[in-house]
Amino acid sequence: MADIADVRLFNAQLNFEHFPEEGNDLTWHLEMTPSFSYDEGDDFFILEIEYEVEIQELVDGISSEDAQPRKLATIAFKLGSLYRLDVNGRNPPEGAELYSFSKTTGTIALYPYAREFVQSMSSRMGLPPLTLATFKLPYPDSSTTPEEPRAIGAKAPPRKRAPKRAAKS
Asked: Where is the sequence biased in composition, kind Basic residues (predicted)?
């Protein structure tokens, strides 16, 4: 039996390309890559999941089917969780068991933390808050074919003022 004991943000990289054009539909694409580390005999293991969210706007089209995506921003980060193992005299878990756990239960347990991080960071970037869809299996693992981008459900807001630029020296 494994119980989650801690969740941490291991790293993050945010890239903002440009402001969206007013009224354009926004979409997103998510990839997740789980991995785990465990040394035989330990009473814990670490699950790490790398997430990459690309936020795009649809331009040059009347409908979303005709529009071409243009990258607005990327939110890439790695979350980690510490799981305590309670073997109670049973055999310790094998690599195949931990692999299955990391691809299912472990990924499901970390997903709400990822959703909160993406929503917070997209807002801080000046974009509409992006709430990732509810977790569904099979999930968009980057080792498989990427799934299609999903609509954010919001249009780009009008800009009230031009972005500030640093003065040249």
From this structure: 157-169
List of residues 6+ apart from 166 with CB closer than 8 A:
none
Q: What are φ and ψ of residue 111, in 5° steps?
A: -55, -40
The model's pTM:
0.77
- Which two three-digit tokens encode residue 100? 């299955």
Asked whether residue 167 is assigned to any structural domain, the reply reads no
User: Each residue of 14-36: b (16+ CB within 10 Å) or e?
Assistant: eeeeebbeeebbbbbbbbbebeb
pLDDT digits (tens, 9 = 90+) for 115-129: 999 999 999 999 988
User: pLDDT tens digit string along 10-38?
Assistant: 999 999 998 888 888 888 999 999 999 99
How many CB atoms lie under 10 A from the CB of residue 90? 9
Cβ atoms 119, 88 nearer than 8 A = no
Instruction: Give a yes or no: residue 88 inside a domain.
Output: yes
In a domain, 134, yes or no: yes
Establish if 164 belongs to a structural domain. Answer: no
